[in-house]
Design a protein that fits this description.
By secondary structure, this protein is of the alpha+beta class. The protein has one domain (3-86): Nuclear Transport Factor 2, Chain: A, CATH 3.10.450.40. It contains four helices and three strands. It has helices at 3-6, 10-22, 33-38, 83-86; strands at residues 52-60, 65-72, 78-81. The chain has a three-stranded antiparallel β-sheet with strand order 1-2-3, with no helix packed on it.
Length: 87
């Protein structure tokens, strides 16, 4: 079931995805299909999920709050993204 079918509005989608994110541990690789599908809709970053090595939850400075990070297979650089913007 897609996120659009599961949630009728952005508030419900934010809660639903937020709950998934909160259940993950720091440095844990994300294999949740809904998260992987969601990142395709980021408005400024064109993420090719087929070329991504992993998605992880990591602490993001300066407030050290959990954030979604990704790394491409062909790169050593990690980058973070806002899953809320994807919604």
């Amino acid at each position: 079931m897609s996120l659009k079918e599961r949630c009728s509005n952005m508030t419900q989608a934010n809660r639903y995805i937020g709950n998934i994110i909160r259940t993950k541990n720091n440095q844990e690789i994300i294999e949740d299909q809904e998260i992987i599908e969601l990142v395709k809709y980021h408005p400024t970053k064109r993420i090719d999920v087929n070329k991504v090595e992993w998605f992880k939850i990591k602490s993001r400075p300066p407030f050290n709050k959990p954030a979604l990070f990704y790394k491409y297979k062909t790169s050593r650089k990690e980058d973070d993204l806002s899953w809320k913007l994807c919604i």
